[in-house]
Amino acid sequence: MSDFNQLVVENAAKQFTLEGDIISVQPFGSGHINDTYRVITSINSGISHLLQRINHHVFPNVDGLMHNIEIVTKHLSKKVKVAEGKRVSDHVLTIIPTLEGKLYTKDSQGNYWRMFILIEDTKSYDIVETEVQAAEGGRAFGLFQKQLSDLDASRIVEVLPNFHNIEFRLDNLRKAIALDVCQRVGLVKDKLDFIFSREDRMKTILELGNKGALPLRITHNDTKFNNVLLDVHDKMQCVIDLDTVMPGYVAYDFGDAIRTIINPVAEDEKDVSKIVLNLSLYKAYAEGYLEEANEFLTTLEKETLVDGAFLLPYMQGVRFLTDYIEGDHYYKTKYDDHNLVRTNTQLKLVEEMEKNEEFMRKVIFDCI
């Protein structure tokens, strides 16, 4: 899972306020960004802990990152309704402070570490299999946004500037085209025509936000389905992975969730004819989301949700294509045209949504 030896990890765990002696520190989960370990102590309180090495190459502003998570989790903790026999820490990530009362610690090798209470007896899915699961994912992210809707977004640090700024992404693409360091632009003229012919439409949300027509809210910004923990009955329990929580527009979260839920194939499927939208999962997610979010969203925010569904695969396609033209230095690739295959998948997803736009908008209208 990582190249850290056991002694380094155990020494990191000892920097946090734990009851009892540490008796076990073992790798946990399959995350691609941070290294995660389960920590068990000699005190049998029914609580285990998660120790994580923060990838400060991806998130260089560790202080801002942890500042965001502290503000958000404290706010959520005041909002959560706890069932009998449950704790707040069963529904909200809970930070364990260091022995010095800090949110994280830095070791002698320059690694940053943090710790949370482990939320037990939950499960997550990489792929949505049922409408019930899709609806619960929608409720989870809708509730997450609703509970944070009265928290001032200006208090949250933008840890990844321009993350969902489509003008920024398109500017990067144009720069890559101008340099054409790998002589690949001539191979992707059709992809570039597809992208630039839709450019104005894809700026809708950003332009409305810049005009002040859309409120800047606190959004998750990584709403893939495995960032929702479900209980044993497949009911939503907690939204996790708060590293990308930043100020944003709600349609971005909705769009990224839809991007990952309704595409039935892998992100690098070579046969794009297999991309046939699972519209029943779209409907279920939208209904679940608006069941929680309908009351606090403005009318215009609701109307832009479908625009978000179009934008996020489009933007991801722009990012994959930019990397392909630049020589595949950002995303890990397994073969020469890997990023081009990924681009094709995302743009095909946009094309399929265009064919079903009337249905997608009617679902939102009916929910409202």
UniProtKB/TrEMBL annotation:
Domain of life: Bacteria
SUPFAM superfamilies (UniProt xref): Protein kinase-like (PK-like)
Matches recorded under Pfam families: APH
Domain (Aminoglycoside phosphotransferase) ranges: 25-261
PANTHER family: AMINOGLYCOSIDE PHOSPHOTRANSFERASE DOMAIN-CONTAINING PROTEIN-RELATED, SLR1880 PROTEIN
Protein's UniProt name: Desulfatase
